[in-house]
Design a protein that fits this description.
Blueprint (H helix, E strand, L loop, with lengths): L1 H29 L5 H20 L7 H30 L5
Helix pairs in contact: 1-2, 2-3
Length: 97
């Protein structure tokens, strides 16, 4: 049962990702105000949302382990992921490419 719930959450998160990419593309074409910090916050926020929703069913199995793993992943996303997304933005939007 838990595996089916996790599968449904992964499919849901995939559709959220598609919608997020379409929304980012639309916003950039319409307004052109997608800055480095905004994109990094949006992407880090999505991966945080993905982690939180995916780990929700695992709280029933082992609450402490699921909470510890989720907390470590969220810290990694915000400490490593946020600067990395900013670097990706600068890399793909640099004039030297």
């Amino acid at each position: 049962m838990v595996e089916q719930i996790i599968y449904l959450l992964l499919v849901f998160n995939f559709f959220v990702l598609i919608g997020l990419v379409a929304g980012i593309r639309y916003w950039q074409n319409k307004h052109g105000k997608l800055t480095e910090k905004r994109l990094a916050l949006i992407l880090t926020g999505y991966w945080s949302f993905f982690t939180i929703t995916t780990f929700l069913p695992l709280y029933e199995i082992n609450f402490q382990v699921a909470l510890a793993v989720q907390t470590v992943l969220l810290l990694v996303f915000w400490i490593v992921g946020y600067p990395w997304f900013r670097w990706l933005y600068r890399y793909f939007n640099s004039s030297k490419r």
